[in-house]
Design brief:
Blueprint lengths: L1 E2 L6 E2 L10 E3 L6 E7 L2 E5 L10
Antiparallel strand pairs: 1-2, 3-4, 4-5
Amino acid sequence: MISCPECDGSVTLPDAPRLSEIVECGDCRSELEIVTVEPVLVALAPEIEEDWGE
């Protein structure tokens, strides 16, 4: 487990975390992206914006 960068709540990680994998904070429901695996660090996942066919 690690702490959420948004609310400092506990984030449960998968058994084998992978780079760029998205996990969710159990407290604030923020989507977090795994940015390094040794050691495991997470950051807020970027918002995917709709391009509306552009």
